Amino acid sequence: MRARPGRHLRLESASVDRGDAAALYRGWLDARERGHGLPGPLYTAPEAFVLDLEAVFRRQWFYAATVCDVREPGDFYVVNVGTDSIVIVREEDGGVQAFHNVCRHRGSRICNEVRGGVANIVCPYHQWTYGLDGRLLHAPSMGASFDPSPYRLAPVQCRVIGGLIFLCLSDEPPASIERATQDLMPYLATYRLDKLKIAAEVEIVANANWKLIMENNRECYHCDANHPELLVALHAYGFGYGLPENEGAAAPQDAEFAALIEKRRAAWAAAGLPHDLIEFPDGLWYRTTRLPLVGDASSMTMDGRPACSKLLHAFASPDTSDLSLWTHPNSWHHFMSDHAMTFRVIPLSATQSRVTTKWLVHEDAVEGVDYDVANLTRVWDATNRQDKQLAEWAQAGVASSAFVPGPLSPETEDMVVNFIDWYVKVAREGLAVDGH
Ligand code: FES
Ligand SMILES: [Fe+2]
After folding, report:
1. Do 83 and 203 belong together in one domain?
2. Ligand found nearest the CA of 216
3. N or C: which end of the chain has fewer CB within 10 A?
4. Which residue segment(s) compose the domain that 138 sits in?
5. How many folded domains does the chain comprise?
6. 326 alpha carbon to ligand 2 midpoint, in Å?
């Protein structure tokens, strides 16, 4: 059974035959026309949700957390993706590891809080006790001859890049993480995430498919009409279109923006701030660039002034740039001289997603003295709420029987095309590996 573009096959049962589901999924992927949005069912169908998890989230590296989530030995932080639960742990030696949050006895979920601090990881069911390295240390009443050594917590591939923690649920994770580490480390090192703390965290559950949220993040076409707070400090043009490396059509204002970047390059070089654009090299999953903020703004606040008076370690005075980082399938980040922000999207169902935003400040900054949480969070709190609304309106629209994916702007939606290209490619590859 194949879906025609724009035609919805909305099946409510998630327990359809897997082969049928894979055939539907492949049909929807094949029906996508480049330069357009995805066929509606990829945003609405339960089969698409299940196969997105399998083919994309269980095969690719995805962004999970920051080292600020597990600052001290024994700190843990739980990330749930579909039916999988992963616990990220700070070990005694300072390393960061991740394990499946599944007891090796009878499978109970072990850590049932999002975060906490423990000496050992103890299953609440029958108290099997694991070390921070995942080894089973103690299992009561299992008999004198019981050998605990085969019953380690199952490891999850975990990589820290400049303080950002990426996970991969596959035993054969894409090798691209090596290049990503090499490429991104110099950019992120400036911000010393290991010396920051989480000043605020907000979770939003949006009634929208995760890809609509990501697509919305990949363009600022909608910014002028929707994000007055964000545009106080952020240029809407920093999304890759119209810049010299982009062969696509350029909007007139982009030449101006490119000139502004050129002007700032010398100052960034002098300050030792990496600034060359890294744009999805070889079709990989990350893009980073340093962008000038508007005028003399140095932070994404309502007045453009720093939200935290204790600046991050590399900065003696406020800097007027923002290092932006985008990663497929599920994150974006901003790093400034006074604070950093990370954004993570997790699919909850075909039509629901969780967006987690964290604001990071210097570890020694004191709330109420160096920063005010309401001031720190105001711009992106408003922006997130506006984006939630936009994604939910889009979700409602793509579920309509009348929806046909329309053309994307060659001037402003390059990164949406890039996201969809990447998604379609890895989804197809993921299906192929599964033998469907
Ligand atoms: S299920 Fe964990 S100790 Fe029994
Ligand atoms: Fe937005």
Report:
1. no
2. 2
3. N
4. 64-161
5. 3
6. 14
Mutate to test the pocket of ligand 1, among 111, 121, 128, 129 (most ligand atoms within 8 A of CB): 128
Say if residue 202's pLDDT is above 60.
yes
| CA nearest neighbour of 338 among 369, 366, 317 | 317
Q: Which ligand number lies closest to the CA of residue 139?
A: 1
Using CB atoms within 10 A of its CB, is residue 23 exposed (0-12), middle (13-18) or buried (19+)? Answer: middle
Q: Give the number of the ligand closest to the Cα of residue 151.
A: 1
Centre of ligand 1 to C-alpha 136, Å, is 11
Instruction: Tell me, yes or no, whether 68 and 114 share the same domain.
Output: yes
pLDDT (mean) for 306-317: 97
Q: Which atom of ligand 1 is nearest to the CA of 126?
A: 3
For the question of whether the overall pTM of this predicted structure is more than 0.90, the answer is yes
Ligand 1, atom 1, residue with closest C-alpha = 106
For residue 226, the domain's CATH number is: 3.90.380.10
The minimum-distance atom of ligand 1 relative to the CA of 103 is 2
272: left (phi over 0), alpha (psi -120 to 50) or beta: left
Rounded Cα gap, residues 392 and 351, in angstroms: 9
Give the number of the atom of ligand 1 that is nearest the alpha carbon of residue 123: 2
435 vs 295: which has the higher pLDDT: 295
Residue with tokens 């089969």: 47
Where do runs of H (alpha helix) occur along 190-335? 210-217, 223-226, 252-270
The CATH number assigned to the domain holding 136 equals: 2.102.10.10
Pocket around ligand 1 at a 6 A CB cut-off = 103, 105-106, 108, 123, 125-126, 128
Same domain as 219, residue 346: yes
Residue 277: helix, strand or coil by DSSP?
Answer: coil
**Residue 202 included in any domain:** yes
CA dist., res. 154 & res. 85, Å (int): 11
Q: How confident is the model at residue 17 (pLDDT cuts 50, 70, 90)?
A: confident
Q: Mean pLDDT of all residues in the chain?
A: 92
* Phi, psi torsion values for 33, nearest 5 degrees: -100, 125
